[in-house]
Design a protein that fits this description.
Bound molecules: adenosine-5'-triphosphate, magnesium ion
Number of strands: 10
Strand content: 15-25%
Largest sheet: 6 strands, mixed
Distance between the termini: 38 Å
Structural class: alpha/beta
Strand order of the largest sheet: 6-7-8-3-9-10
Order of helices and strands: EEEHEEHEHHHEHEHEEHH
Helix content: 25-40%
Amino acid sequence: MLQIENLSKQYANSGVYAVENLNLTVNPGEIFGFLGPNGAGKTTTIKMLTGILPFQYGRISVAGIDIKADPIGAKRNIGYVPDSGVVYDKLSGAEYLNFMADVYGVPANARREKIDALLATFNLTDAAGNQIRSYSHGMKQKIVVIGALLHDPKLWVLDEPLTGLDPQSSFDLKNMMRRHCDAGNTVFFSTHVLEVAEKICDRIGIVNKGHLVFVGSMKDIKEWKRDESLEKLFLDITGADPFQ
Ligand SMILES: Nc1ncnc2c1ncn2[C@@H]1O[C@H](COP(=O)(O)OP(=O)(O)OP(=O)(O)O)[C@@H](O)[C@H]1O
Ligand SMILES: [Mg+2]
């Protein structure tokens, strides 16, 4: 579903690679967690695979479509939840969702039911008529999540999606991620929350200083370094443990 080959990216004003020679395949039906410390290259990778950032070397394909050769075709298969919130915050929630449905070509008759169901799931039905800029952080996050799902994307990409969500919304979002995968789709998300990765991911990748340093299941990682807490393991792998 998602294939990344020899991906490297250097920002124009930087002497180092933000992401270097990254290789990864994520399969249909899989929830993949992308972990790493601040500045590791998670957002950079996510922006490249969603076609937002250009890259110098390598190849990315989504549902078999090369993101450079056919960016629009690849993006039709992607739902993206960025870490930075909503851009169109002067729109009401309902206007924003209709706009997203237009962008992704969701037919008018199919969108009504879907929008209503998702608004209800996330407790946003009453707020849908209000401007997004009046929303709380969590409400903004939730409206973006709904907007990303309207076209039923094969690949759902989320950058730090649980930040700022209350326990119920967090629970609902995790369930939604699982349901999306159970329907044969793929979820790729970044997180700092190790317990979340442990609970819901089929596999995780750990990135450090632009390099993918581990890919596998939680079982693999625990077998690799027995008797260590998840937190200690993570700090060991990313070299951030001051007590090492
Ligand atoms: N626009 C930019 N210009 C130059 N360098 C950048 C830019 N954006 C990110 N970087 C650098 O690229 C590296 C990776 O950053 P990135 O935002 O991908 O990290 P991250 O893993 O998402 O971190 P966080 O957990 O804090 O969100 C960092 O060294 C960062 O300073
Ligand atoms: Mg980031």
